[in-house]
């Protein structure tokens, strides 16, 4: 009935998440409010993990892409689930370190890491620094040398795959700011250089073809391309690349019409491809890493808002204004992303109106969506926007100096704050 499996309707006709009345949550914590279901987060982690066990003999590691949603509690949960972490800035890395994360299980990304970031990564002995370009390799080697340490790296490779998704979230094609191209020979040169660098250990290769991808085929093709490159390195340089990181990008259900492939199926098909290619190419099976972000965080989240005004413009549209918007969810203004919305206090009623949900920022494009089916919404109603667990809080801003909403985790009928609501004092904290 709803896009996320933990959503239902109770006897009052209210929307529930993980069995908890969302209208009560809105009353207790105020709105806007991010709500994340811990059970669903853990379930997704386990399903990725067990698919590696089942189809790849456990010879791999799931690393949650924390850019989707990062905070200390999320890192703690990943640690408990035996999951690694993908971080992409010193801020995410610092959060992981402060939450007591095992640094060997961290993949540190970024196409332009600063000296401060590289030094922090080396000092903390991060397990996989994903090197994006030659100057970064040189810098990293020098930093590691100055500290008398060897840095463990992977190379980010562009496998030349065009995944069918939004242009802004495609990353595997040659025209991308991320990584080394195979076609031009720069990736091969980088590998040679890494093997010759005294303070570098080349653990493996990495690729990530994009995000919110529904087809499995591009993942299969990417693994084929990467394995061929691993074979070339073995044959021409006599060096064995032991690890292959295939990135994330698994699509999720934002709308009823979306039909994502079960996570198990990805691993089953990719594992088949890897087994087949390794046999043909006469190379050992690599240790496989995957980096799901959205698929772990998104379905677990909803955002609750209170309706302010209802504005009907005859023959044009009806605006429903809410107390949040692009500052807590910039995905519509960035990618025209579509969401399912429900009036939480009228959840058993039919969604037979088509409305535009508008945010409160001083910007006409500040919308959560247009033409969205919704129950008749009026001032004071609570609106739930579904599947907002990924790339919402993590991409939120203080535009218009609007304080960020809190994040509440729900688990076994209980709720708890994991990120506090920003205060007005927080807003001026760094002002001189
Ligand atoms: N690994 C790497 C190297 C990545 O760059 C990403 C996402 C992931 C893993 C995780 O991808 P996921 O499983 O979450 O699709 N802000 C955009 C998404 C940007 C994705 C960036 N990289 C959005 O809101 O749709």
Overall description:
By secondary structure, the protein is an alpha/beta fold. The chain folds into 2 domains: 7-37 and 299-428, Lyase, Ornithine Decarboxylase, Chain A, domain 1, CATH 2.40.37.10; 109-292, TIM Barrel. Helix 8 (217-237) links the parallel strand 11 and strand 12 (243-245). 31% of the residues lie in helices and 25% in strands. The model has no long low-confidence stretch (mean pLDDT 96). The relative contact order is 0.16. Strands 4, 14, 15, 16, 17, 18, 19, 20 and 21 form a 9-stranded mixed beta sheet that branches. An 8-stranded parallel barrel has the order 5-6-7-8-9-11-12-13, surrounded by 6 helices. The chain has helices spanning 22-29, 38-56, 72-80, 90-98, 115-123, 134-147, 186-196, 217-237, 263-281, 294-297, 331-335, 424-427, and strands at residues 7-9, 15-17, 20-21, 33-37, 60-65, 84-87, 106-108, 128-131, 151-158, 180-181, 200-206, 243-245, 287-290, 301-313, 317-322, 341-343, 353-358, 367-374, 382-386, 407-411, 414-419. Ligand LLP is lined by residues 65, 67-68, 86, 109, 169, 208, 211-212, 247-250, 291-295, 331, 335, 390-391, 395.
């Amino acid at each position: 009935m709803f896009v996320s499996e933990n959503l239902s309707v109770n006897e009052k006709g209210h929307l529930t998440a993980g069995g908890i009345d969302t209208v009560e949550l809105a009353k207790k914590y105020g709105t806007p409010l991010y709500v994340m279901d811990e059970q669903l987060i853990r379930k997704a982690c386990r399903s990725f993990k067990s698919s590696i066990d089942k189809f790849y003999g456990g010879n791999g590691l799931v690393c949650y892409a924390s850019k989707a949603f990062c905070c200390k509690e999320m890192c703690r949960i990943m640690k408990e689930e035996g999951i690694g972490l993908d971080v992409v800035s010193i801020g995410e890395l610092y959060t992981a370190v402060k939450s007591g994360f095992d640094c060997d299980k961290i993949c540190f990304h970024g196409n332009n890491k600063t000296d401060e970031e590289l030094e922090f990564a080396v000092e903390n002995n991060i397990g996989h620094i994903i090197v994006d370009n030659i100057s970064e390799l040189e810098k990293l080697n020098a930093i590691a040398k100055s500290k008398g340490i060897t840095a463990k790296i992977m190379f980010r490779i562009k496998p030349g795959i065009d995944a069918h998704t939004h242009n802004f979230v495609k990353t595997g094609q040659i025209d991308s700011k991320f990584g080394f191209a195979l076609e031009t020979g720069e990736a091969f040169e980088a590998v040679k250089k890494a093997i010759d660098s005294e303070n570098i250990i080349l653990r493996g290769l990495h690729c990530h073809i994009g995000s919110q991808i529904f087809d499995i085929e591009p993942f299969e093709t990417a693994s084929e391309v990467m394995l061929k490159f691993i074979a070339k390195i073995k044959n021409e340089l006599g060096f064995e690349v032991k690890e292959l990181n295939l990135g994330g990008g698994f699509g999720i259900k934002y709308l009823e019409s979306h039909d994502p492939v079960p996570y198990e199926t990805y691993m089953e098909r990719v594992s088949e491809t890897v087994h087949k290619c390794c046999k043909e190419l006469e190379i050992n099976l690599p240790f496989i890493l995957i980096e799901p972000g959205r698929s772990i965080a998104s379905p677990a989240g909803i955002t609750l808002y209170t309706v302010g005004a209802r504005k009907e413009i005859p023959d044009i549209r009806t605006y429903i204004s809410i107390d949040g918007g692009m500052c807590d969810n910039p995905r519509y203004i960035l990618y025209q992303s579509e969401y399912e919305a429900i009036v939480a206090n009228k959840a058993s009623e039919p969604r037979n109106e088509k409305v535009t949900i508008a945010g409160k920022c001083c910007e006409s494009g500040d919308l959560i969506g247009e033409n969205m089916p919704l129950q008749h919404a009026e001032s004071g109603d609570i609106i739930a926007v579904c599947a907002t667990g990924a790339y919402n809080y993590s991409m939120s801003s203080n535009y218009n100096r609007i304080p960020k909403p809190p994040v509440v985790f729900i688990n076994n009928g209980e709720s708890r704050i994991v990120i506090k609501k920003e205060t007005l004092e927080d807003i001026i904290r760094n002002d001189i």
